[in-house]
Amino acid sequence: MTPVDRNRKVVVVTGASAGIGAALARELARQGRNLVLTARRGDRLDGLAAELRTTGVDVLSVPVDLADADAPRTIIGSTVAHFGGLDVLVNNAGFGLPTLFSEAEPSDLRKQLMVNFVAPLLLAREATPHLVARHGTIINVGSAITYVANSGLGAYGATKAGLGYWNDAYRRELRHKGVNVCLVEPGPVKTEFFDALMTYAPASGEYNPLLDAPLPWMTAEVNDVARRIARLIDRPRRRLRVRRRIVWPFRMLGGLFHLWPWLGDVALSSVVSHFDKAGDLNRRQRGGSLGDAQPTD
To answer: Which domain holds residue 70?
Structure first.
């Protein structure tokens, strides 16, 4: 076995089998970082790990389901056992549900809460002693959707809003210990997210048209997003926003709805009511592929 280069930073990336996670892993390998890749799909992780090892970096693959309560301890424990420490934790994994909140299965909601919110916090808790020892960094991938409360993504927005709150709180807790905590709000990104949503569509074949993929001009390129996230390791920022045209209207609307909550109630309720009356909420789903859903924003 090739000896581990202790001079390379060790980065854990969750949700690494596709989308932002896979693109970020490739960018970090290009920069010479040692990597720990984790996701549910072991075959895809192993394939990506083999590809990245050809660049000369050491890559550890840890296939786990973040909905498993033991996953955070397994990931951090395996990382430290293999590399002797940890420099960066990237909480990227997450998934949405293709239903309104009231129509989502409780088991799916529970899994969403575990993967999108509980697992990042527990991963950070397990990683903190090692990050403090190396003055490391935590990077959390949030979402611009939190600016406008909309039940079209079930509890997805709630998990990302909670992640943002905790991100700021933990940044303040660890600041004097030399650990950076960064939040990324990339906006819509071209990934498998919307295909993966369909794997959680109701058995009846119904889906929510509010979750149709954004138009191409509204979305950022995944490799560009990966490069911007990777820069945070050497140039940390409190909050990274990838500027795309669709994000600014959300922020503007969010500000208006904060000032006049009744306006938000009328606007968003009217949208949902319109789709419901038109029968759009009962249209048959389009085809989708199974996979680790990656956050698009």
So the answer is: 10-282
